[in-house]
Amino acid sequence: MSTLHSDVSPAVSAVDGERLVAPAPPASPGRRRALRPGALTPYALLTPALIVLAVITGWPLVQLIVMSFQEFGRAQVFGAPPEFIGLANYVGILTDPQFWQVLSRSLLFAAVCVVVTMVLGILIALLMRRLGVVIRTLVSIGLLLAWAMPPLSATIVWGWIFDTQYGVLNQVLSQVLGLEQFTGHSWLIEPLSFFFVATIIIVWGAIPFVAFTVYAGLTQVPDEVLEAAQLDGAGAAQRFFLVIVPFIRPILVVVTILQVIWDLRVFTQIYALQSIGGLAEQTNTLGVYIYRVSLGAGDFGVGGAISVIVVLLLVALSIFYVRRNLREESL
């Protein structure tokens, strides 16, 4: 039998010998609750990693923000004192038509890469779930080899495939399929075909991460739920969108955000393709544009301002996407 507050009398219950009691009064709001043992352990374990991140990432980011408000060129690199010029770098960037061209080009290119990567990665993950152990192992090895190849090496290899004179693709299209217009065809001279090649390279290198991550999430989907949905008459597409996607939604959100961040700031593949034969002015993306403005033109202040704008853009996109998915989950 529960104890009763001293000011309240127990009530008689229908059970012989039992008394109904009121719950104990709540604790005073001003009284502090004692911390349970181990409550601070997670924060203590995270502290070393947070310190390392603050030193390695936080301090350079602060320096970048400060530099974006300065006139910082080659003279300042060799010791000349920088001059604070306020928002002049940001005003110059935001009023530069070339920046808006590069930004729109980068957003469109990243959107295409993210969509293609996510669709193919999810399809491969679904395929791996249906494959046998031997075939799934071979597919996993192939994905790991593609994932392990450095971006520069992969770009060079794909550059050989699309080479104008000796590329395998031109030889197959012209000699095997009889398409004579592809004899000596240059795939990198036109912006559209340039980004077609770049999309293939970037998607090829990003699919393994998406496939492995989504496959790991698919293994957590209960088979009983899928079998019940199938018995209820749900088709393959309905089972995927109504059963599988709700289970792996957090994984899809994280993977999508990471792909947006990586594809929006891609540098190596674009710069290497430009070195092979692309036209830089018509194919610059944000990563390459920042490099050419900062190290190429020696205007580190303007480059810092562009970098800050890109960081704010990525943060805004990430927050928007996360909040949207959290709102959908709460409905």
Characteristic key phrases:
two-stranded antiparallel ribbon, mainly alpha, 331 residues, flat
Helix- and strand-based class?
mainly alpha
Q: Total number of β-strand segments?
A: 4
Main sheet makeup: 2 strands, antiparallel
Segments where pLDDT lies below 50 for 5+ residues? none
Strand order of the largest sheet: 1-2
Cα separation of the termini: 42 Å
| Assembly annotation | single chain
Helix content: 55-70%
Mean pLDDT: 85
Written as H for each helix and E for each strand, in order along the chain, the element string is EEHEHEHHHHHHHHHHHH
Radius of gyration: 29 Å
How many alpha or pi helices? 14
What form results from the Cα inertia axes? flat
Strand content: under 5%
What does this structure look like?
- Helix 1 (41-68) crosses helix 14, helix 3 packs across helix 14 (300-330) and helix 9 (223-231) crosses helix 10.
- This protein has 14 helices and four strands.
- The chain is an all-alpha fold.
- The model has no long low-confidence stretch (mean pLDDT 85).
- A hairpin with a 6-residue loop joins strand 1 and strand 2.
- The longest helix has 34 residues, at 97-130.
- It is 69% helix and 2% strand.
- A two-stranded antiparallel ribbon has the order 1-2. It has a two-stranded antiparallel ribbon with strand order 3-4.
